[in-house]
Amino acid sequence: MAILSSSIARKVAMALSGLFLVFFLAQHFTINITSVIDPDTFNSWSHFMGHNILVQFILQPVLIFGVVFHFIMGIVLEIRNNNARQISYKSFKGNKNSTWASRNMIISGAVILAFLGLHFYDFWFPEIVHKYIESNPLDATRYYPELVHKFESPVRTGLYCLAFVLLALHLWHGFSSSFQSMGWNNKYSKGLRAFTQFYAIFIPLGFIFIALYLHFNQIH
Amino acid sequence: MKLTLKIWRQKNATTKGELKTYPIDGVEGDMSFLEMLDVLNEGLINKGEEPVVFDHDCREGICGSCSLQINGEPHGPDRLVTTCQLHMRMFNDGDTIVIEPFRAKAFPVIKDLVVDRSAFDRIQQAGGYISVNTSGNTIDANTIPVNKHDADESFNAATCIGCGACVAACKNASAMLFTSAKVSQFALLPQGRIEATERVLNMVAQMDKEGFGNCSNTGACEIECPKGISLENIARMNREYLSASLKG
Q1: Chain A interface includes B178 (CB < 8 A)
Q2: d(CA A189, CA A176)
Q3: Fewer CB in 10 Å around end: N or C, chain B?
Q4: d(C-alpha A183, C-alpha A12), whole Å
């Protein structure tokens, strides 16, 4: 299976996993924004996501696989790319011909990965412990207070906002780039690029808004 | 114009190189970059020093031989020109100019500023051709109708001179713009469709074998390409490759 080891196949795999994560991000944002609009809706949607068998035991493992695959493939490609130029230039002006975001996907990706660690520590691990280890009784009203409590800390809120800025930069290049990797470059590409750039700004900005809103609207 | 040149000097492929500083005076704005290097070399020869070795041939921007990384950009700060067509008017009196060879594992330095770009030849040999029977029954290419858009796109791809600026500009030293131009120029024409499947599979396999990096779509290659080869060619090659792989 020569295709699996080819540079183009690796790029396509990277693009497909990236697009899957972009889709997931929109879904995550849709649920999170309800915490600002209507806490009851947020509670009921969170409860559904946390207890639906399809979500928990099929979609969640697929999502984790997608994240891990995207991360590992990113590292593999970075190592191979660094290996392709073993002696660096003394003078290299990448900013003359490309954007910072496109040249530093590994940096923005590493920050997002570190953020995922914090995010899992904040929400995912406590949730797993709550449901499957402590086997607490069902409580469909606990999600909103837990969420608000997490954003009490200005440091955590700041870290979340910083990570979302890096997410915006990652999406700014990655989203439109994934279409190019899959061979999509035609008369519609300009419009598609405009949409991906809108998405790259809108979704992270929305997450920043939610984090700041929750921080400044604590439950007393 | 008075300039300070910092030039990569390397005795041969196995020794380590370094940047050496050369002051140069009397440079005219109308000189080409290579003429400026000729003046430098004349001075070095007169002083009994070894001249700087660099690649050049046509000096008309069509052969793809000249290949210098100038102040951090392949072919220097001007756009859509090769090093031989870069003129010194792009620089100012007192400037320091850093001149390095194109850097890639697949482009090993031979001496000073000359690199071995035969990896490109091997990619081309892997499929950058069409097989035509020349026994006397050859059909005139002009008798086969070709869509105007495709003909133009094919011609644009065929203007790639294989200078290697795309590899040099890419942070990953990827050769996808070159390979895709060579794949596209044939893939767009009816004569090229016959061997399209094997061509793209073989050329991409050879490109990977040579040790070039992966494309990460920064677009640097397109900006620095002296012939303006478009990124659309890379997308086309990706499509061709995926479709060829599925065909088997």
Answers
A1: no
A2: 9
A3: C
A4: 9
* Residue A50, SS3 per DSSP: helix
Residue window 83-112, chain B: list those with CB within 8 Å of chain A: 98, 100, 103-106
Tokens representing B145 are 């109708």
Distance from the B1 Cα atom to the nearest Cα atom in chain A, whole angstroms:
22
Task: List the one residue out of B195, B173, B175 whose CA is nearest residue B185.
Answer: B195
Any idea which residue has 């001496």 for tokens? B111
Spatial separation of the C-alpha atoms in residues B138 and B212, rounded to whole Å: 37
Q: Please judge whether A93 and B106 are an interchain contact, meaning their C-beta atoms are less than 8 angstroms apart.
A: no
Is the pLDDT confidence value at A2 over 80?
A: no
**CA–CA dist B234, A106 (Å, integer):** 22
- With 70 as the cut, is the pLDDT of residue A3 above it? no
B175 within 8 A of B160, measured Cβ to Cβ: no
Helices (H), chain B: 33-46, 118-125, 148-158, 165-169, 176-187, 190-193, 196-209, 220-224, 232-247
- Nearest chain B alpha carbon to A86: B105
Give the number of other CB atoms < 10 A from CB of residue A93: 17
Band of pLDDT at residue A86, cut at 50, 70 and 90? very high
Q: Is B220 on the interface with A (CB under 8 A)?
A: yes
Percent of chain B with pLDDT over 70: 100
The predicted model gives A127-135 an average pLDDT of 91
Q: pTM, whole model, 2 decimals?
A: 0.94
CA distance A158 to B149: 52
| Interchain CB distance below 8 Å, A85 and B73 | no
DSSP letter for each residue of B106-141 = TB-EEETTEE--HHHHHHHHTT-S-----SS-PPPG
Window B:108-167, CB contacts with A under 8 Å: none
A51 CB within 8 Å of a chain B CB: no
Q: How far is A215 from chain B (nearest CA, A)?
A: 37
Q: Is B215 helix (H, G, I), strand (E, B) or coil?
A: coil
- pLDDT tens for B121-180 read 999 999 999 998 888 887 888 899 999 999 999 999 999 999 999 999 999 999 999 999
What tokens were used for B107? 């482009």
